[in-house]
Structures are given as structure tokens and as C-alpha cells.
Specification:
It contains four helices and 22 strands. The strands form five sheets. The protein has a six-stranded antiparallel beta barrel with strand order 2-11-14-13-12-15. The protein has a four-stranded antiparallel beta sheet with strand order 3-10-8-5, with no helix packed on it. Strands 7-6-4-9 form a four-stranded antiparallel beta sheet. Helices cover about 25% and strands about 35% of the residues. The chain has helices at about 5-15, 25-55, 125-155, 160-185, and strands at about 70, 70-90, 90-95, 100-105, 110-115, 120, 185-190, 195-200, 205, 215, 220-230, 240-245, 250-260, 270-275, 290-305, 310, 315-325, 330-335, 335-340, 345-350, 355-360, 370. Strand 17 and strand 18 (about 330-335) form a beta hairpin. The protein is rod-shaped.
Length: about 375
């Protein structure tokens, strides 16, 4: 029996392993490769069969010691990693609406402010003087209008004089409203409630509508935006669980609130949004976030360490199931279909039901149908 293996091997070496000639074409070499692979599979099966027969017939061969692992059932989750950025819709650069020198800065960086609260006063003295002059002229315009109206009510004077007085009065009213609005623009206000993150100018410097003077952020309603590779499109859905890791912060548990429906052509990704409302302590806009996204979940799945699943010459995955036989165990090669693997654990789709004892350490020293000790 033991002479069978050398005989087969020698025959294959003589028949199939002759060196290729220099004029061998690519097609010929590929065909020879496939032929050799087929011969190798036959040879590997023959060797495995011979080993099994030797183990069964050789009474001098003691059963090897192995360790056994009981196959269990548990919930299985698969995750993939993403990088994202913390964002907020309330992160505003504040611009003045008019030109003017900075007269007073009412807040400091880090202060909490309310919507409409004045942050910076601009110098609007020129506008105030213009308003005072218009108000003086307005008093005269009102008096002229009142007199013309009294005369017109008594059918005295011309309609043109009355309309001119009325028009002048109304024009000056509009001018005063415009000047008052410009004065109000001299008070730079917070657009919403939040925290003053930055004050740009110093007292005495000129401000203009082209340059920001402050930044106000609101840290209550924050979220994370991340780009997901295209191959996950359709697998990631709203509501999928996410674990968020941030520097100097505890791991946050959240869920995907929105999945983009557009693949960006420049990097072949789509966007997802993860809301983190109410859990924003220690977070800041544009902070980097690492996330584990749960893209698969199975209840009570058959799982076992990935290292216990072996592969034979036919590219089949298998384990050795151990069945008690007296004081020893009989091992049977069992073909399995592995599924996803995460964190070293593999979900088995078929081949095992849970509760089986399989060979762990020492599996490379056993043969199908052989006996082992544990």
C-alpha cells in the first residue's frame, strides 16, 4: 500500500512535468498548467485516501491528542470602517452690512450669545448726522404740507402745490427710514443662538461687507458626513447602526439618518449622514470621526473561529467533526460553506447546525475516519 504514492508521483513527474520547449505558445502553456492542476487534484485525493487507510490499518499508530471546540450559535454582525467629518448647519461667518470702523466689541470668544444679540458696534456717526439733518427738514416739510392741506380742503390754492408738499413730506419719511436702517446695520448681530468662536477685527480697524468679523457656531445639532465606497451602494440603508469613535470622546452609538442617491464621479463614493443630536459633548465642527457601520446582522447564527476552517485540494472548506467512540473520538471530514468573517469569527451558512464538537488544535495531524484523543 505504501508504495502506491511514490509510484503515482513518479508517473506524473515523467508524463506531465517535462520542461516546455522554447517555441511553446502561451495557449499551450496555459493548457499544460490546467492539465497539471487536474493531475495534482487526483494525486492529492489519492494521498489523502492512502493516509486514511494507513491510519485505519496501522495498529502501532497511537491516536493523536487534539483539543475540541464546541460549535455555538450567537447573533452575528458584520461591520466596515468609514472616515467622516463632524458637521453642523449652524456654523456661520458673520459679515457687516455696511462699511465702518469698529467702535466697540461687546463679546469675547467663547461667549454664548442669543439670536439677534449685538456682537460689534461700527462707527455710524456720519449717518446719524445725516439723519438729524433730515429730521429737521422733515419738520418743515410737515408744516408746509399741513398748511397746503388746509388750503386745499377749503378749495384754496392749486392741486400742484398740495401734491408737491405731500410728495416732499413722504420722500423725507422714506429717507429717514433708510438712514435708520443703515444705523441699525452698524450693529453686527448674531444670526442665531450659539457660541462665539472667533472675533476677527480689533477696535479701530475698518470693517466692510467683503470681510467677516466673527464666527458663531451652534453645537447642539451636529451630524457626521462620510463618503462610502460605491461597492456598498444598496447595502447601506437608513437606520443601520453605527459606532462612532472620536479623539478624546467616548464611543457614540448612532444610526444612519440619510443615504445619498448619487455616486460622485470623482471618487466613486456616495454620501451618508449620521445624526448625533444630544451627544455632542466634546465635539467640534470638522472633527475627524472613525465609524463602524453595521451592514449585516443575523440572529442565532452558527459561528466559529475562522482559523478552524481548512481548505482541501479541491478548494472545498471543511472541518473535522469529532464523535465520541468509547474513550476516544472518531473524526469525520465535514464540508462547510463559510459566510462573512468579522473580528476573527466566521458565520457558517451550511454544514453545521451548532452543538457539534470540532477539532481545534491538532487538526493538521488527523485524517478522515481516524481516531483522536482529547
Amino acid at each position: 500500500m505504501k508504495t502506491l504514492v511514490p509510484t503515482i508521483l513518479a508517473a506524473l513527474l515523467i508524463i506531465g512535468c517535462a520542461p516546455a520547449t522554447e517555441d511553446s505558445s502561451l495557449a499551450q502553456l496555459q493548457a499544460k498548467k490546467e492539465d497539471l492542476k487536474a493531475r495534482y487534484t487526483v494525486l492529492a485525493d489519492s494521498i489523502a485516501w492512502v493516509d486514511e487507510q494507513i491510519a485505519l490499518l496501522d495498529t502501532t499508530n497511537k491516536s493523536p491528542f487534539v483539543t475540541l471546540y464546541e460549535v455555538g450559535r450567537a447573533d452575528f454582525d458584520n461591520y466596515f470602517w468609514l472616515q467622516g467629518n463632524v458637521q453642523t448647519d449652524f456654523n456661520a461667518l458673520v459679515y457687516p452690512e455696511i462699511n465702518g470702523a469698529v467702535r466697540n466689541i461687546r463679546v469675547r470668544e467663547g461667549d454664548r450669545v442669543s439670536a439677534g444679540q449685538v456682537l460689534i458696534d461700527l462707527d455710524v456717526d456720519v449717518i446719524r448726522k445725516n439723519l438729524a439733518e433730515v429730521e429737521t427738514n422733515y419738520e418743515l416739510a410737515v408744516e408746509v404740507y399741513d398748511r397746503q392741506k388746509n388750503l386745499w380742503d377749503q378749495n384754496i390754492g392749486s392741486e400742484v402745490q398740495f401734491l408737491e408738499a405731500k410728495t416732499r413730506k413722504e420722500s423725507m419719511e422714506r429717507t429717514m427710514e433708510t438712514l435708520k436702517s443703515q444705523i441699525d446695520m452698524g450693529y453686527v448681530k448674531a444670526p442665531f443662538s450659539g457660541v462665539v468662536d472667533d472675533i476677527v477685527p480689533k477696535i479701530g480697524e475698518m470693517a466692510n461687507p467683503m470681510m467677516p468679523v466673527a464666527r458663531v457656531v451652534k453645537l447642539d445639532d451636529m451630524y457626521i458626513l462620510a463618503d462610502v465606497p460605491e461597492n456598498y451602494f444598496g447595502k447601506v440603508r437608513s437606520g443601520d447602526r453605527v459606532e462612532v469613535d472620536l479623539a478624546n470622546a467616548d464611543t457614540l452609538k448612532a444610526s444612519i439618518s440619510r443615504v445619498g442617491s448619487y455616486i460622485k464621479p470623482e471618487n466613486r463614493t456616495f454620501e451618508v449622514r449620521i445624526d448625533i443630536k444630544g451627544e455632542t459633548a466634546g465635539l467640534a465642527p470638522n472633527q475627524m470621526a472613525s465609524m463602524r457601520v453595521n451592514d449585516f446582522h443575523a440572529d442565532s447564527a452558527v459561528i466559529l473561529p475562522a482559523s478552524m476552517i481548512m481548505q482541501d485540494a479541491r478548494d472545498q472548506y471543511f472541518v473535522y467533526v469529532a464523535t465520541p467512540a468509547g474513550s476516544e473520538y472518531e473524526v469525520i471530514k465535514t464540508i462547510v460553506e463559510p459566510g462573512l468573517t468579522y473580528n476573527g469569527m466566521t458565520m457558517v451558512i451550511s454544514g453545521l447546525k451548532g452543538g457539534e464538537m470540532i477539532v481545534d488544535k491538532g487538526a493538521r495531524r488527523v485524517v478522515n475516519g481516524g481516531m483522536v484523543r482529547a
